[in-house]
Amino acid sequence: MEAIKMHLTVLPPRLNIATILRPNIGVMAHPVLRQLFYTERNEDSFFCITKTEYELSLVLEDKYLKEVLKFADSNHLKDCIEYWPQNWIALRTDLGSSGADNGESVVNSLAKTLSAADITIFYLSTYSSDYCLVEEHNVEKALQVLRQEFKLIVEGEELITSSFDKLNRYPNDLEPMESPRAESKKRKLFFHDTDLQLACVSPESVASLSVFLMKCFFFTKSWSKIISFIQIEGEISLLGDYRYFEDLPEEQNALLSKYSESWKAFSIGEELGYSESGIVYSISSPLSACNTSIFYLSTFRTDFCLVIASDVENSVHTLKTHFSLENKRE
């Protein structure tokens, strides 16, 4: 059987993942606003900010995290921000047509293989692409195990700088990988019965949406709504509760290219640790098996898996057999 073709692009930035708990968002607003509106970005830039009921989660380049930490340190706010000590590298992913023919989603194809190799990933879907973040010291291992499963085409591999001597790299012939084992205890999974809007906007339009974005991230009184702003490779994706967009003036609404259907979210019902692997796969696998398209959004403290509204009933039925599923009050 011919191997499925997978195309990966290694992005240049060294990334960090950080979190600000909800009660501290106000005092940390200044450096976050600078990152959102006053930082020049090019085609290689990578920035993600996601607000949930628990946190403001950030994915940003190493040099920009240092700016945020400098602000926190100089204003005696070091306890207000937490970050993962390792750098991450982003892989833009694309699965060939044979993968689609097999009913295998991009996220599930990656998550299954990397989970079996005990490699932790942080996953971000956008309006038009998927990005898999791997800890920098694990990138070479990740590429090697993916080559075992796929006909892998990699762009930008020369950007990878190994943290260990070349003589000590992973062997070319790794041990055959086992499928990730099912957990004996069912994880708790929340279902959010709230309509979410996915949209795309050009970088040139962000200034026109600045008041809207500030209101969404810093001044809304609701603690349960989800809002995410992702700017990667010159494209900006917005994901948010439909209620965020209700009062947007017509001329600003015209700046958004909106996905035709609404989305619903499932989220892990417990705080995650990055020492764990297989979280993404545990959700994507059952949904992929029933040919459900998913939009995946990792944050520092949890993961969200979104499905289009027309797939909700089937998704709930499927996930109930794998998780302890609860409705989340909004």
TrEMBL record:
Q: Which domain of life is it from?
A: Eukaryota
> What SUPFAM superfamilies does the record tag this protein with?
ACT-like (SSF55021)
Where would I find the CASTOR ACT domain in this sequence?
Answer: 86-147, 260-320
Task: Please name the InterPro entries in this protein's record.
Answer: ACT-like_dom_sf, CASTOR1_N, CASTOR_ACT_dom, CASTOR_mTORC1
Q: Which organism is it from?
A: Vannella robusta
| One Pfam family per UniProt | ACT_7
Could you read off the lineage of the organism from its UniProt record? Eukaryota, Amoebozoa, Discosea, Flabellinia, Vannellidae
The chain positions of domain CASTOR1 N-terminal read 14-67
UniProt-recorded name of the protein? CASTOR ACT domain-containing protein
